[in-house]
User: Fold SclB protein from Vibrio maritimus.
Amino acid sequence: MVLAANSSANDINSELNKLDGTVQDNEGNIYRTVQIGDQVWMAENLRSTKFQDGTAVRSGAIPKDDETNLLKYGRLYNWHDVADKRRLCPEGWRVATDEDWKTLERTIGMSEEELDQEGWRGGDQDLGLQLKEAQTDGPFKKVDQSLVNKHNFFARPAGVKWNGWYITEGAYTEFWTASSASESKGIIRTLAYSWWNAHKGEIRRATSSKEYMFTVRCVKI
Assistant:
């Protein structure tokens, strides 16, 4: 059973594991990393269950509570863990802020006019496709596969957890930023994957309740 699980994990991450850069958290989890412009990002979603000081996080659910999803999707965290001063990411790294995301978006071609806008952005250049590991075609718009995962960001549609329910796996991925919008809401990024979704080439900048549980990407400090 262990051999089968390891084989499955290797199959899931076979392309991802071709990246040379790595970083390890204090639990021994190893993540592939990628340089995009002047930034170095994790090319995988965070899987940590502890902060840098060794204390346990309060969230950190595996999508659908299915261990086979851990290496594929990472864990889902609420914003309180994301922003905790004990630091969720490995030493020398931080949860990407709204500004970090805007730097990434600028690097891959988003216009200055769109950077600070809320809602779906970057559609003219299909910037959303450039961050996804995969995107299927659909009858409404043919996907230029040469753009998909152009920057080796390997975003996957992990879905979210809300009020104990796992939803939208395979259809959306939602990334927390470490930036707060208000007492109850944080700033997020969203990618859409369903072939019929008109926004599948875009990146959404929005706000969401801090109680939602989303995926997390870390960026090197």
